[in-house]
Sequence to fold (90 residues):
Amino acid sequence: MDTLAQVVDGMTQPVYERLKKALELRRWPDGRELSERQLADTMQLVLAWEVRNLPVEERSGYMPDACRSKQAESPAASLIASTGAGNRDS
Fold:
């Protein structure tokens, strides 16, 4: 079974865009609803792809200087770091 990092490495931008659209609509392109598991897995893939491929200002959920704790590591960054998805060498 592929790791999250391997799946993200193999994702193209069109695949990322389709997954992101599915998250927004909570439906696959054919109209079927995403299950809770599919929703969670798809969200993890989208966020991991963004960490590897987009500048921070273009990532989902980016809020410029929204809070004073911006110095602290975000929960998403911690999750991605723990799975190795944020490391291009894995």
About this structure: The mean pLDDT is 83. Residues 16 and 47 are 10 Å apart (CA to CA). DSSP finds four helices and no strands in the chain.
